[in-house]
Amino acid sequence: MSRGFVKEGDQEETPIIPSRAALPEGAINYVTSFGMEQLLGERTDLENQITNLSTENETERRRELAILNGKLDLLQERIASARVLDIEQQRKDEIRFGATVTYKMLANNMVNTIQIVGVDEADLKLKKIAFVAPIVVAMTGHKEGDVIDFKLGGEIRKIIILKIEY
User: Under the GO molecular function aspect, what terms does this record hold (predicted)?
Assistant: First the structure.
């Protein structure tokens, strides 16, 4: 039937499916083995939600299925593009993907420790920072004791690398 013959109140809104964490154009989707486990676990959870959807209202059920299937499609793309990097294969003397880095901001002597992870695994509360974050990009390739310039807004801040662990 043509959409012209459908009552206005019968038209369903297209559900909005939240996007995944941003990955810059052309960037390889690096993940840790733990990050890949998280992605696969998320896929299992979504598949279970789809299988066990218990909404009785047909309109609401179609909407929920559309959202869950959209999330699953985005997740499948992310899993397909994921490249697991073996942290043990990284150079131990410089900052690379998977490293846990302790550094000090020289302006305020504040010491921080972060782990460099994939975009889907990043979690600021757990101090897991995506490899594409500006501070990580500035640190990558540097060694313990290096003082680096980190551009933050309009100012340049000095950071000293205190410790690198894998």
Answer: DNA binding; RNA polymerase binding; translation elongation factor activity
